[in-house]
Amino acid sequence: MSVSVQKIVEPAVLGEGPHWDDKQQALYFVDINSKSINKYVPATGVHTKTLLDGRVGFIVPVDGTNDQFVVGVERKFLIIQWDGENNSKVKIVKELGEVDQDVPTTRINDGKADPKGRLYAGTMGHEEPPGNFLMEKGSLYRLDRRGIVKMCSSISISNGLAWDLREKAMYYNDSPECKIRRYDFDVDTGDISNLKYIFDFKKNDIEGFPDGMTIDTDGNLWVAIFDGSCVLKIDPKAGSVLQKIPIPAKQVTSVTFGGPNLDVLFVTTASMNIKEEQKPPCGATFMVLGLGVKGHPNVNFKLP
């Protein structure tokens, strides 16, 4: 089967944070700059969305519920209730905490639940105009039963979380570094240690920046390349590119596996006019078929 890339959702300004809910067979994602949370059901082709009161960096379902989600809005972690319908009202169920209170110009940019359901989410520096960031103002945080713990500081743009339990590893991107980080990962505590860089984009002459990423069941990383119009499949052990998937949008932001067999790669993109106009289909959400690999089920957030 040949690889095909299909547009499934009309363009967003800054699509990000795709999460496949296996129970509902639905894709959730955000449009950060438009302050919207989104739901797409492939079986019906129905796309719904609604607005929040601030820029939203991620949406992850709460485990054991059908209508509750943890979201990162500006610098706060919130539990919200949303019925998934278009333009329906969102109820704030609980505030879980606020990060970067000493740096009030940052915002939450990306977040995921780790294999145990703990929340990892990071922040990034103020951006004005688009593409011009305050560097090293963000951090990476973990939220679990012990509260909010700062894992890394001096982060510029927090992105790209993925875990490999067989290798006891966590992979992470601080996008402007143009490198992929690897940490030893303690699955019991959620602690990380022993930072190593396992891939350097500049040394491999790759244009663009590593953004969101996911991992397949073979242990290979799939990395969205912002300003690179592609997704790269990277072997983290060998530090080599195995495959390049061209995407018809310059600003590729994130990826996740989904579908009934977890063999569809969903790809979010952006349409921010940085240096040049980003015309449709830039900003659309795509699905990639025929890759011949499978991902792991996305993990929902488990309330502390």
TrEMBL record:
EC number assigned by the record: 3.1.1.17
Pfam families according to UniProt: SGL
Cofactor (UniProt): Ca(2+); Zn(2+); Mn(2+); Mg(2+)
Any one biological process term the GO annotation gives: L-ascorbic acid biosynthetic process
GO MF terms held by the record: calcium ion binding; enzyme regulator activity; gluconolactonase activity
Signal peptide positions (record): none
Reaction(s) the record says it catalyses: D-glucono-1,5-lactone + H2O = D-gluconate + H(+)
UniProt-annotated binding residues for substrate: 107, 109, 127
Domain SMP-30/Gluconolactonase/LRE-like region intervals: 14-270
Chief place where the protein resides: cytoplasm
GO CC annotation: cytoplasm
Location in or out of the cell: Cytoplasm
Positions annotated to bind a divalent metal cation: 16, 159, 211
Superkingdom in the source lineage: Eukaryota
Keywords assigned by UniProt, alphabetized: Calcium, Cytoplasm, Hydrolase, Metal-binding, Zinc
Cofactor detail note: Binds 1 divalent metal cation per subunit.
Catalytic residues (positions): 211
Family of this protein: Belongs to the SMP-30/CGR1 family.
Protein name: Regucalcin
Lineage: Eukaryota, Metazoa, Ecdysozoa, Arthropoda, Hexapoda
